[in-house]
Amino acid sequence: MKPTSSKMRDVPPLSTKQNMLWNSAGSMTYLACQWLVTVLVVRLSAGYDDAGLLSLAMSVVGIFGTFANYKMGTYQISDIRRENDLAEYLGFRCLTLGLAFVACMVYAYLTCAPYALATIALFFVFKAVGLLIDILHGADQQHRRMDYIGKSFIAQGLSTLAAFVAVFWFTRNLNLAIVGMTASALGVLVLFDIPKAGQFERVCLRLSRSKALFFLKVSFPAVLASLAASAIFAIPKQYLAMTSGDAALGIYASVAAPALVIQMGAMYLYGPLLDVFPRHFFDGDLSGFLKLLGKTIGGIVLVGIACSIVLELVGSWALQLLFGSSIEPYVYLLQPIILSTILTAFLWFFGDLLITLRNFKANFIGNIVALVSVLAVTFPFVNLWDMNGVSFAGAVACLAGVLTLLGFLIATVRRGPARAHGGNGERTDG
Hints:
Layout: H1 16-43, H2 49-69, H3 72-77, H4 86-111, H5 117-142, H6 146-171, H7 174-197, H8 209-218, H9 220-244, H10 246-256, H11 260-270, H12 276-282, H13 286-323, H14 334-356, H15 360-385, H16 387-415, H17 417-422
Helix pairs in contact: 1-2, 1-6, 1-11, 2-4, 2-5, 2-9, 2-10, 4-5, 5-7, 6-7, 9-10, 9-15, 9-16, 11-13, 11-14, 12-13, 13-14, 14-15, 14-16, 15-16
């Protein structure tokens, strides 16, 4: 895409290794800071009620944040022919954010306690800022400058953590603390991400009716798939909160927080490659595609094994150090959580990979299989195993989804790039 402003300049791309290192460093820093928020909300408050309320807000917003995302991040990154520009992606993101907020609050009003509504609304706004930044990160990745992404994540992580601690420490008010996090994220957006992305393309909003309809149509199966994926753990968590209370959900979320490193670490491993996979595939380099696929699967497995071993050795000690001795009776929850997070990582990877190959239908079917599975097992599993039932239900659902997606991926690769280009009718010249 040609620059449209004199302020724009050619910025040399970084190597794949450099991009992966920067993305991983920044993303892991951000993840660690967000995890510390879930730790400190327990440490700075009395009991697990605030932690449970925050976890509930995260779960509900996660469902509709997925709709707001509309899988545009993955679609934008793999838009190797530049069929759409940054202004159009930003315009569409604002549209979906508005629609998702309305849907989220209607859902929360119907399914959550009244006292939780304000927290859910405020947390949605916080996530909305991150989703706007995500589109700017897409432009950074398209131009192979993921050092900007890494630095942004570091700034977001440290500033939002500091804001949360400062506000919650003085006020003991979860809602005000979320407002503080939102203000910090906005600062990073305005002061860092907009100027950096502006080096490549003009940062503005533009969205025609025809382009909006195109985006809505082309990614709709992927959105439904993402909603299904978000619900895999949100449904059993909500059922746990209904049957056992916010404190039980807070305990589960506290124990689960360290294990999230596995699935997020996997995402940070394959995320920088989502524009590389389609280049290999659609250029007919199936050997390069399969070699990269094997390395990525191996990397995810190694991340899972390494994290599992570390958490098995020091998990109990670490949890007690972070949350106090009151968490010790619940350490038994950790291993089932680890299993479910590894399977979740593979569900995400195979789903995103199929999107980059423009097989939206396969991604949709795989995640719907997972959703149907979790609906079938949530109630008996949570009733039988209580907090562990959340992990068992999620693991069964993710395994069913992974096997389905893997089958479609094999079929897509066998068909080859020629049929993948137009076989599903998703690609267009814009």
